[in-house]
Amino acid sequence: MRARDLLVPFPTVGLDSPVAEAARLMAERELPGLIVLDERGTPVSILPGTQVLRLAVPRYCQDDPALARVIDEAHADAFVRALGDRTVRQALPERPRELPVTDPDATLLEIGALMARTRSPLVAVLDGGRLLGAVTLSALLKRLA
Fold it and tell me: Which Pfam families does the entry link to (predicted)?
């Protein structure tokens, strides 16, 4: 089995897209992340949902889980609204990791190794620089199980 057999069309966002819009898209479609494209339409990163959470959840709650417990739900919702006008570019790590991109002929083991190495829940599949779609962690695990 190859990447082409598991890939699905996958939504993308631009670097300057609002991160709140990206979060909404992930929530509505139950996606683990999104493929981020540059101005030319070339994949430059994967925005995992966990990175959006890192931006939305106050640092003091990330550092001390006991503080997170004492904040009620009404105030917790305000943190997501605090994403405000921030962009996807601002949500990405300052030092990009290896881009989880492969070609349609990649094997399941190659895809799994790439996901593990890059800590990405999805891998973009490109053919000649053109985005075909993505292989998700859940699709890979279903096939391997």
Answer: CBS
Q: What is the CATH number of the domain that holds 77?
A: 3.10.580.10
Residue 58 is encoded by which pair of tokens? 């106050």
Pair of tokens at residue 123: 């891998």
DSSP letter string over 12-51? EEETTSBHHHHHHHHHHHT-SEEEEE-TTS-EEEEEEHHH
Q: What is the pLDDT along the chain (145 residues), one digit of tens a residue?
A: 999 999 999 999 999 999 989 988 998 999 999 999 999 888 999 998 888 877 777 777 777 777 767 776 666 566 667 777 889 998 887 777 789 999 999 999 999 999 999 989 999 999 988 899 999 999 999 998 8
| Phi, psi for 134 (deg, rounded to 5) | -145, 155
The tally of domains found in the chain comes to 1
What range does the domain containing 139 cover?
Answer: 3-144
Q: Give Cβ neighbours of residue 24 (< 8 Å, ≥ 6 apart).
A: none
Mode of pairing for the β-strands spanning 33-37 and 130-136: unpaired
- Quick one: DSSP state of residue 2? B
According to DSSP, the residues that pair with 12 across neighbouring strands are 35
